[in-house]
Amino acid sequence: MSGRSALIRAVIEPLAALALAALAVSIILLALGTSPIDALGALLAGAFGSWLAFTETLVKACPLLFTGLAVALAFQAALWNIGADGQLLAGALLAAAIGPMLGAWPHALALILMIAAGAIGGTIWGALAGWLRAYRGVDEIIGTIMLNFIAAQLISYAIHGPLMEPSRSYPASAAIAPSAGMLMFAPPSRLNAGMILAVLLAVACWIALFRTGVGFELRAMGKNRRASAFFAIPIKRLTVWTMAASGMLAGIGGAVQISAITHRLYERLSPGWGFEAIAVALLTRLNPLGVILTALLFGALDNGAQAMQRTQGVSPVLVQIIEAMVIVIMLAFDSSLLARTRFRFWPPLIAPPIATATAKPADG
Amino acid sequence: MVESLLNSALGMATPILLAALGELLVEESGVINIGIEGGMLAGAFFALAAAYFSHSIAIGLIAGIGAAVMLNALFAAMVINLAVSQVVAGTAINLLALGLTGVFYRRLFGITGQAFTVHALGPIALGPLGRIPIAGPVLFDQNGLVYLSLLLVPPIALLFSLSRYGLQLRACGERPEAADALGLHVYRMRWLALIASGGLTGLAGAYLTLAYANTFVEGISAGRGFLALAVVILGRWNAWGILLSSILFGLAIALQFNLQALGTAAPYQLFLALPYLLTLIVLALLGGQSRAPTALGIPYVRQ
After folding, report:
1. pLDDT above 70: residue A110
2. B100-109 tens-digit pLDDT
């Protein structure tokens, strides 16, 4: 497949998917009795209409970038990580646990510790799901989903119990020490250094996936698990490592949220970033660099949706419909139906699942 | 005390059982539908909405079934006819259901703050049977949907063990190329399985709002659809195994609400997490996927 047509596809597909999704959503808006132009206009204004709106769009995009990278990495290995939420929460939990104790530390060290805590929490949560898949045959779809719920309950327990804030009057953890707070760039906006970290991690992911040996093995495993095993790629270990790395990315995202935005832990920290991340990753065909752009896009949708609710009375949950439609349309673009048209050299969006389902009982 | 726990357990098991039976049909035909969660949610909401506006439970049930069937139809078109990744398509269905139910819920009820409740499906006490000690209140004092779900188990079990159709369905899930070569309509059988599953999932969702909670809150399905997926695996793709596993999970969920009865000092979050923890532990111990239909999750394209 030529590089030029790949580039054209990379640009046209997401735009077309968005346009079609907007169309589908407009129908729903009309059914609700709202003008699609007003509603979508309010959405755009809310996302980009002012400097503060724009910075808030970036704020909303940040966790999506972290979780989007996590999902993209795992999906490249055909590991269906639906648990980015749980992994993010696990990272946030550890970060929020040590945050209040870092008062005496120098700023830079405290931040490093926060990020490390997030990384560790997320890594554990991801590796757990990976281990269950590789060594106990537990489908990672179920494994990660179950771990999502368990993580939510762990957080609930923590903030009602051991981590509860000192006055014990509301369910949240104690505020993190100021030294553990992320470097902010331009108050009163919430631009912060965590965003830079996210972008750097995206680049690192891309390099790891496309320029290293282990990245190659990971992608090979994603394309054909059984063949990879045959060629001595250590499937089981790689599964655990990939899920661990995926979890780590999400966990760091959780730590950044605590450090930069919320400064403490509370219930429902994530409004479903882990699921949104799937759309974010798919829209750019699991490319870590592309995730930067799609995370920005969905951050804009999330941010604008709140304005849309204020001015048009449309629930921000509408954005989830857009996300769903984007996934559906991107999948349709990839279907064998289109492959039989003149776009014959359409590379598949997700690694062909030929080997993944059958390889489960006979792993490694 | 124990009776009320078991009674609730059976009630809690019902939506999972219904959804799992539907998923069994679908998975035996070779498709994995993780969008059951979305189907259940949609069934729950639209059943309640329809029942609320029409003042008729029957219409509510039909609407709930219809909503889930439509979602499953979209899913079927994507994974059967377009042969796309089933996992991703299922995720899209879940997001779609969350979005649709959320948007319509807030538009119809959220702003006005009206009580979105209906008169519940009451229990149908089966007369003298209900008075048998212990077994009576547990088994014979449930509402109609619970009985229906239990009654569905034997026919589905027989479908797979005795009937030709069951065998053909299994063939689609084991080796669709061979089934196709033998003249079976793989696409059609998978479609039928998904539609039937939609009906069952819609019923499961309708149970949640019409019989159990009598109202709707966003995300009311709370992962029960995913638990149904686990139940199919735990039940070893066998209707009776699914029944047992569903009851196990129903028990775990019912325990959340019967803490006082147990007088324990354990944090309530442990009990809320129990069904999910149990899933992981049991699946890990039993080693997962070995009895899955061979072609499960692999899109089949007719050559």
Report:
1. yes
2. 998 888 877 7
Question: In the structure encoding, which two tokens stand for residue A229, read together?
Answer: 């095993």
With CB atoms and an 8 Å threshold, state whether A320 touches B95. Answer: yes
Asked if A353 and A78 count as a contact pair (C-beta separation under 8 A), the reply is yes
3-class DSSP state of A298: helix
d(CA A239, CA A249): 16
Question: 3-state SS string over B3-49?
Answer: HHHHHHHHHHHHHHHHHHHHHHHHHHCCCCCCCHHHHHHHHHHHHHH
Residues paired with residue A164 on neighbouring β-strands, in sequence order: A173
Asked if A65 and A291 count as a contact pair (C-beta separation under 8 A), the reply is yes
A41 shares contact with chain B (CB less than 8 Å): no
Report how far residue B303's alpha carbon sits from residue B300's, in angstroms, rounded to the nearest whole number: 9
Partner residue facing B277 (CB), from A136, A150, A350: A150
Contact indicator for A73, A133 with CB cutoff of 8 Å: no
- φ, ψ at A266 (rounded to 5°): -145, 175
Chain B positions in Cβ-Cβ contact with residue A358 (cut-off 8 Å) = 294-295, 298
CB contact under 8 A, B298 and A28: no
What ipTM does the predicted assembly reach?
0.85
Q: Chain B interface, mutation test: which of A146, A283, A349, most B Cβ atoms within 10 Å? A: A146
Q: Do A349 and A278 form a contact (C-beta atoms < 8 A)?
A: no
Report pTM: 0.88
Q: In a 3-state reduction of DSSP, which class is residue B69?
A: helix
Category of B17 on φ-ψ map: left (φ > 0), alpha (ψ -120 to 50) or beta: alpha
